[in-house]
Every structure is written in C-alpha cells, then in structure tokens.
Structure to design on (1003 residues):
C-alpha cells in the first residue's frame, strides 16, 4: 500500500510539472500580452495609453523576452515560494488568491453539502419506490435543475430578490460588513447570504447525483444478497442503508478527484452573475487581462487539486469497497 | 465581452422595460438633458475667505493636540471653490461601485480633486489654476512659470514645494529604469524640456522651442496630469520626495532597496518604487488630493477618506471635501453594477451605467431615491467608423479607401436616425466627427451635417461615377480587378459602452441599398490591437471621446498613435507622423497638410492655435477620413444616477476623459442635505 502511494506521489509530481508547462503555454497562446489587453482596457474606458507608456510597461514586466525565459523566471520564483506579482492587481499572487480562497471553499462546500443532503435521500427514495409519484416528482425537479443553465437561474433569483424583497444585490456580505474583521455578526451575515448561491450552484449537481444514486441503487436492489438479507428478517431500513446504499456510494467516492478543483473554480459564471468574491471570477479576469502569473498560479492550483483529489479518491475507494484490491506486481 | 454576454440579464427585465419605454417616449430628450453648469475656482485674492473652518472630527483632533490648526494645515493660499448652489454641510459617506483594480477611474474620477497642477473650468474649455496658484508663459512660449501655494502640505503634513518637482524630474523622470522612454508631453517637436526650481514656491518648465499648448497639457489627461493620474508610471510632474527617497537607490542605497523589494515580493526595485507612488494602491503615500486611499483599489472595497491637509476650501472658508468618506464596492460584473444602481445602492454613479437601461432607471427613480441625469459629450462621435488609410493587404480595397468620394458615399449611406432611435433612444445627434457647436475648435455649423445625412441617390451616383458601377445579380458592386464582389470588412469590439457590433450590423443592412457588402467582424480586444498594429484592419468602429480637446486628445482625429490604439485611421501614417518622417509611410498631401497644421499649433499662442484647430477639423470633415455616425450622446459614461438628497449636483456636466467627469463638477463640493 505504501509503495503504491509512493509511486502515485512521484507520478503526481511529474503530472504537476507537466501541468505547469501546459498552463503557461496555454496562457501565452492568445494574441498579445498583458500590455495589449491593458491598452485595450484603457481604450474601452475612454483613455489612451501612449506609445511610450506601452513600451515602458513591456520593459518593466519583461514581456519582450522569449516564452521559455519567462517560464524559467516563473519557476525560479516558485522554487523560492513566491508565485510572482499579479500585473493587474499589483500584489503578490498568493495574497490575491488567498483572500478569496477560503470564501470560495465556504461557498462550494455549502453547495456540495446541500447537493448531498438533497440528492442522497431523494435518490434512495426514488430507487426504493421506483415509478411512484414521489419518484416522478423527484425526477422532474431534478431534470429541471439539470436543464436550466444555473446562471440564468441566478439572474432570475437576483431580479426577484430585488423586485419582491428589496434584497441586497450580489456578493456574500452586506456593504457595511464587507471589510469588517471577522466577528459573529459577519459570520451570521455570510450565512444569510449563503443559501442562494449554494442552492443555485448545488441544483445541477443535485439532479446528477439523484440520477446516479437511483441507477446504482436499482442495480444493487435486484441482487440476490438483498433478497437473502430480507429473507433473514432484517428491517427494510437497516437492510437498504447497510448494504446496497453503501455499495451505491462508490461513484461518490470516485468523483472526489473532480470535486476538489470544482470547489475552487466550478462556478465561474454563477459567481460572476451573483458578484461572489470567489476564485472563479478572478481566474476569468486574469485570463482576459493576460495576467500570466495570476492565471498560471490558479491553473496550477487547479491541476494540483485534481491530482491530489484523484489520489485521495483512489485511496478512499480501496477503503470503502474491500472488493477493490491492488494488483501486486 | 462580459457585457454582451450578460445582456441576457436584460431579458429578465424586458417586461418592465416595455412598460417604461412608453414613459420615456412621453419625456422629451430635453427633459432629461439639463443645462451645463458647475462650480468655479475663485482666483481673486480679495475674495478669499478670511477664516478657515474644518470638519468636526478634525476640530476634535486639533483640540486633542493630534493635528495642527486648520489654517496651518491649509496654508496661506487655499484653493477656493465656489460651490454650484450653496455652502454644504460636513458628513456622510458616498457609496459607489467599481469592477476591480483595472477600474482605477471610478475612484480617480470621484476623489482625486483633481491634483492636476492646472485644470479646466466647468465648461471644459478654459484652463484654470488648480494645485498651482497661477502660471505665466515667458520667453515667447518657451518657459512656463508655475506659482505654488505658500504653506501647502502633503497629506502627511510635510511641505509641498518646488523640491518635489525637481526630485520628480531628476530622479524619477530622468531615471532610465523608472521611465525608459521619455514622454511626448515633456517635449515640443521631439525636443525634451527641463524642470527648474526658482524658489520654494516657484517652478519653471523650460523648452527649447515655443510650447504654448503646455498649460493645456498640464490640465489635460496627459503624462503630466498629476500624481493620482500618472504617479504609478513615474510621471505626473511632481512626487513626494521626502517619502519616496527611501525606495530610491540613489538615496537609500542599492543594497537596502534590493532587500526591500525582495521582502515585499516585487520583481524589481522599479516595480516596488512605482507601486509605492500609486495613488490608488498605496495608503501610505503622501498625496495632494482631497480624499486619500485608505483601503486600496486591489481589495474588495476601495475606501477613501478626507485628507486633513486638503488645500481645497469653499467660499465660506470650510475646508473641503464635505463628504467624509467614499466607499466603492467591488462588483464582479457590469450587470451587478447596473442592478445595484437601479436598486438605489449607489449615491452617485455614472461609470458603467448602460444607456439601454435608461427606461429602467427612470422607472425606479422614486423607489431608489435617486434622479437620472444624462450628460452628453461634446465630442462628435459616440460612434465613428475609421478607414485604415494606410491599408496595403488588398490593393483594390486600399485604393477605394483612399478615394475621398468612396468614403463620402459610404457616409451618405447610413440612416443615422434609425440608429439614434434604436441604440441611443433618440438622445444622440446624427453628426459628422466635428465637436459640439460651442467648442472652440468647431469649424462652423455647416460642418455638422457635412457628409452626415442619408442620401442614397447621391451616394449611388458617386459610387457609379468613381468606377464602381458594375453590380452582381444581388445588386452588390463588383471589384474592378475581376475578383468578384467588393467586400469591405469592419472590425468591432464587444463589451464596450456601446454595442458596436449590433450597430455595425444595422449599417450592413443600410449599405445594401448602396450596393456595398459589409462584413462585420467582432474580435477579441487584444486581437484587435494586434491587427491594427499589423496594418490588417480595414474599417473599425469606435468612438472619438476626448477629441473635443483636440490638442490633448488627438488619437481619434487623425493617425496619431502608432502602437496603442484599438482602431486606427492609418497605423503607417501614424508611424510616419511620430517619427517625423523617418519611418512608416508618407501620407497623401491633404493628410500631410492636416498633420503640419496640428504640429504647428503647439508652438503658437492660443488665438492662432484655435484657428489651426478649426482647419484641422475642416479637413477631417471634408475628407471623411472617419465617418461620424452619432455624436454628442450620453452613451459613454453619460448616464448618471444621483441620490436626490445630495446637494450641489449639476443638472448637466461636461462629460469627457479630459474633464475626468465628475471631477469637473468638483465632487469636493457635493454634500448630504440631510
């Protein structure tokens, strides 16, 4: 087992390196650089960047150098634990991301939590009472959630919130608590703002998980061991929760690899629409502005999280399902 | 980009817009656009207030001995501003929105004062003293003498003197690491000027040749436009020497500076130095502006608070500003800003408000407790179409774009009324590119409609006559080289203040009637810049905001900037112009005449300059180097939402990059009535 983990870890390091090269190359692919997008941004705000200023910026940021030189420079910085300076924010990248990282985790964990809390019981119910009215209702709602683009849902909720309830628009905090130090009031404020984004973000995932849970459970329910257990007189609840549900949970464990990066950036458009101060909009803006160190670091972070997530889910699967065994070589 | 994507958001409110559109139709354009007005700078020493007063919190600090008395803080020569309507009251917060560190203007335009040495009066036409108490030209326009205010202080209480100009010039501007390429604003005919100290409160800017436009350059949005505007680029004209020396190798030593930038995780000492001199991002920076940054623009909330050493006072002697703090909250996208404005969550906001949403703004005025104002610009083009006159990739297209009658015919083929009604809700003016009639460089009323009306018959005749009479089965004109239909391409950018792509699509339909096949191509903005720089652009849609200040904002009048421009009327000609004929391509005679007049105007007194400016506009309008579509409209930052309880609000303000609107209306005089 240890050797297995060790081998996986080594591979992971190589993968992360490959990701860093790839992400840097991808960021360099679009035409122009930070200075061109800066000029364009100035222009669209009714201002002009002089030719001299554009030249000065290129010299100062070292943008004229070949791509591999810029990459090596970045790698050297990372080796020193410094991810570089965001060109747009003019602050260290770690600071810019760090601030938003924990809020992102809070929002995403809340939506994941909501997803599971809704999806598991509904999925189990749908499977056990297949083709009942409840199953149809659950399926119907689930498919709506899957079919409606969640940013549209976000817009509708924003508009209704404004016209019907006069609610504060967007964001995770009321304006007066925006910059306040952490306190009970601020946590409470965050909790009050959390349900809508969590619900919107969670809805599509919920539908998906309901379907997966239902399908898996249906497979399991027909297996002989269930009949055997039932014939031995186990109560229905004990029976279902102890064996088939546990087996049907496998896909949940194996999706953790994708869940971790999702926690950081799975909600770019919804976050934009709702004005959430999370990492998603930051990544989008960094890509548009060609702020290469910031975009590169976020992409790298996502890569690392996918790698770690996959590792964790592999280990988790072995643990959850004893039937899965490592092949000893 | 985001803007167009999320206009879907508008669909949600479509119903309410339909209802409100009816309401708008009943309100005439004149009801929404008020009279141009604004506060004035009092320069007469006899009218100076005798006694100075201050905000209550400062009075308390003075009592507690934490702050020197107000008279000492302001100095002997305050910058006196006569408020628009009345003397205001101290207190309160001004709430607004911004979209991130790149959206520097939001805070800059409200709160910088401005800290220009000279600035404009509220009409945007006349240069007035500002941070500098006065100025005079000497030596036949070769020297500008600036008189500073005696006893004026930086926001940390240290004196602001001529030494801050010399430090800026010698140690920042002339340092090749900080400013690798010298600024064109500091040069006349390519020859750089120098800054000299006469005494503590007198500074000279000296040039080798007459530079009569220099006061306008100091007042305009140029490289010498003050610390808040240009400090972060090592420009601005002055800098707080006593503070910045600790980050400069000449004073602090290279080893010490190297240690500092590494600790702060900067890439180089240059980046650290410039970021220390960044008005919007460094709360420790001593400033001259009436409000100063407390939490910087690269955090979720950009907060600015009153500067205890502000030199601005009203006519009753109250130290300005009236409003204590300005809080700008980060909105991740423009729809959120618009929706928050509609909900009344902003007290004064003009940037990013969408003209298309005017009906919704009007509908919610009562509920949101605000009033909607429109501030049309003085420039002739909310939307213009630039021909790339130095285009080379397709000789046939290049030939036609260089034929004046081809350009004129295309200009006559546009139904501007339809466009105005659809996209400006009728609030703009169909126009050529020339600035508003009251502008000093306006060549005359007859130029407003010159080649800027709909005349399909004449347009068709002209096109037939120049040799484009042959048409294909669908009625489109054919190329003369036998390569099929004459297709011209227009480049547009999404996500701007106006929906250029959609308007261009409408023009495409209109040009069918004159047999011109227009291809509309929306491109990503970096690509647009690259294509322009590579001389690959044919037509391009943009605006000419700022062009009413011909000599400080000429980018959209003729090929002026070579690199940094999203739509160009001839990048090779611009190169030729900037390099004084050593690079690029020589323009045709009429264009050369225009360029010569423009260049000459910098070195002659104002009266002659105005005449030359008029001639420059005459040539542009006659030659139609650029097609004017709709002008003098409020599309670009001219939709303004202000709380009804805010005082000294002009019913219409001069709207322009050079006016840094609303700075031109002196937000230091805005106040809360209750």
């Amino acid at each position: 087992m240890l050797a297995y983990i060790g081998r996986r870890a080594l591979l992971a390091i190589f993968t992360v390196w490959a990701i860093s090269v790839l992400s840097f190359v991808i960021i360099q692919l679009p035409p122009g650089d930070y200075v061109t997008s800066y000029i364009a941004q100035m222009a669209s705000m009714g201002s002009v960047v002089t030719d001299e200023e554009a030249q000065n910026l290129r010299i100062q940021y070292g943008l004229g150098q070949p791509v591999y030189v810029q990459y090596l420079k970045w790698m050297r910085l990372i080796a020193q634990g410094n991810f570089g300076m965001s060109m747009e924010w003019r602050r260290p990248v770690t600071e810019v991301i760090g601030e938003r990282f924990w809020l992102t985790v809070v929002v995403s964990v809340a939506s994941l939590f909501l997803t599971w809390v809704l999806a598991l019981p509904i999925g189990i119910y749908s499977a056990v009472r297949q083709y009942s009215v409840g199953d149809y209702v659950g399926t119907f709602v689930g498919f709506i959630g899957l079919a409606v683009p969640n940013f549209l849902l976000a817009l509708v909720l924003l508009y209704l919130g404004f016209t019907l309830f006069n609610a504060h628009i967007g964001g995770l905090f009321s304006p007066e608590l925006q910059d306040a130090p952490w306190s009970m009031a601020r946590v409470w404020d965050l909790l009050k703002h959390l349900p809508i984004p969590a619900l919107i973000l969670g809805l599509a995932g919920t539908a998906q998980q309901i379907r997966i849970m239902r399908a898996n459970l249906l497979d399991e329910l027909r297996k002989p061991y269930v009949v055997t257990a039932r014939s031995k007189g186990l109560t229905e609840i004990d029976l279902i929760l102890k064996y088939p549900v546990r087996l049907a949970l496998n896909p949940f464990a194996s999706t953790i690899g994708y869940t971790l990066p999702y926690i950081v950036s799975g909600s770019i458009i919804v976050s934009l629409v709702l004005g959430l101060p999370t990492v998603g909009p930051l990544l989008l803006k960094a890509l548009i502005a060609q702020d290469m160190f910031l975009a590169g670091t976020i992409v790298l972070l996502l890569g690392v999280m996918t790698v770690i997530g996959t590792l964790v889910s592999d280990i988790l699967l072995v643990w959850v399902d004893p039937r899965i065994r490592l092949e000893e070589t | 980009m985001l803007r167009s994507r999320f206009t879907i958001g508008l669909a949600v409110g479509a119903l309410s817009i339909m209802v409100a559109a009816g309401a708008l139709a009943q309100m005439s354009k004149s009801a929404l656009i008020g009279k141009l007005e604004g506060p004035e700078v009092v320069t007469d020493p006899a009218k100076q207030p005798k006694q100075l007063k201050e905000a209550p919190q400062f009075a308390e600090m003075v009592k507690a001995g934490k702050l020197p008395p107000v008279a000492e803080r302001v100095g002997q020569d305050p910058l006196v501003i006569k408020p628009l309507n009345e003397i205001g009251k101290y207190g309160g917060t001004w709430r607004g929105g911004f979209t991130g560190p790149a959206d520097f203007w939001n805070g800059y335009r409200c709160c910088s004062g401005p800290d220009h040495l000279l600035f404009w009066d509220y009409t945007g036409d006349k240069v007035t003293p500002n941070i500098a108490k006065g100025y005079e030209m000497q030596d036949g326009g070769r020297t500008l003498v600036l008189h500073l205010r005696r006893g004026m202080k930086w926001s940390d209480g240290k004196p602001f003197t001529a030494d801050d100009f010399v430090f800026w010039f010698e140690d920042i501007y002339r340092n090749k690491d900080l400013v690798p390429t010298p600024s064109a604003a500091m040069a006349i005919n390519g020859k750089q000027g120098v800054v000299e100290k006469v005494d503590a409160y007198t500074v000279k800017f000296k040039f080798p040749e007459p530079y009569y436009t220099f006061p306008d350059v100091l007042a305009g949005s140029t490289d010498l436009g003050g610390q808040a505007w240009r400090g972060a680029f090592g420009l601005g004209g002055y800098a707080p020497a006593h503070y910045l020396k600790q980050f400069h190798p000449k004073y602090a030593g290279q080893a010490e500076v190297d240690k500092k930038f590494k600790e702060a995780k900067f890439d180089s000492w240059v980046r650290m130095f410039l970021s220390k001199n960044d008005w919007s991002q460094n709360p420790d920076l001593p400033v001259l502006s009436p409000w100063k940054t407390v939490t910087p623009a690269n955090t979720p909330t950009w907060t600015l608070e009153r500067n205890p050493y502000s030199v601005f006072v009203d006519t009753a002697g109250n130290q300005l500003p009236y409003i204590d703090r300005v809080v700008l909250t980060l909105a991740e996208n423009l729809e959120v800003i618009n929706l928050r404005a509609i909900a009344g969550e902003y007290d004064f906001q003009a940037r990013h408000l969408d003209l298309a949403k005017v009906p919704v703004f009007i509908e919610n005025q009562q509920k949101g407790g605000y009033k909607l104002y429109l501030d049309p610009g003085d420039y002739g083009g909310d939307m213009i179409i630039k021909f790339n006159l130095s285009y080379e990739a397709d000789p046939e297209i290049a030939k036609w774009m260089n034929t004046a009658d081809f350009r004129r015919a295309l200009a006559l083929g546009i139904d501007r009324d339809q466009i105005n009604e659809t996209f400006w809700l009728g609030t703009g003016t169909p126009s050529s590119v020339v600035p508003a009639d009251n502008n000093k460089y306006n060549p005359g009323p007859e130029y407003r409609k010159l080649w800027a009306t709909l005349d399909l018959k004449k347009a068709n005749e002209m096109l037939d006559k120049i040799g484009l009479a042959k048409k294909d089965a669908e009625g489109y004109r054919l190329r003369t080289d036998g390569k099929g239909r004459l297709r011209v391409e227009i480049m547009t950018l999404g996500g701007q203040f106006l929906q250029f792509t959609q308007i261009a699509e409408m023009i495409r339909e209109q040009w069918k009637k004159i047999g011109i096949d227009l291809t509309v191509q929306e491109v990503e903005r970096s690509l647009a810049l690259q294509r322009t720089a590579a001389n690959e652009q044919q037509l391009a849609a943009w605006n000419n905001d700022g062009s009413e200040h011909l000599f400080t904002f000429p980018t959209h009048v003729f090929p002026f900037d070579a690199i940094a421009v999203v739509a160009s009327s001839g990048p090779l000609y611009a190169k030729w112009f900037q390099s004084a004929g050593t690079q690029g391509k020589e323009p045709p005679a009429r264009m050369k005449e225009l360029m010569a007049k423009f260049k000459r105007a910098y070195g002659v007194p104002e009266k002659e300059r105005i005449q030359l400016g008029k001639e420059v506009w005459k040539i542009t309008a006659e030659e139609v180097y650029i097609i004017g579509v709709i002008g003098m409209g409020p599309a670009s930052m001219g939709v303004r939402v202000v709380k009804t309880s805010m005082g000294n609000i002009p019913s219409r303000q001069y709207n322009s990059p050079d006016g840094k609107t609303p700075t031109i209306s002196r937000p230091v005089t805005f106040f809360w009535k209750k």
Remarks:
- The mean pLDDT of chain A is 81.
- Chain A touches chain B through 65 residues (CB under 8 Å).
- Residues 274 and 324 of chain A are 42 Å apart (CA to CA).
- DSSP finds 17 helices and no strands in chain A.
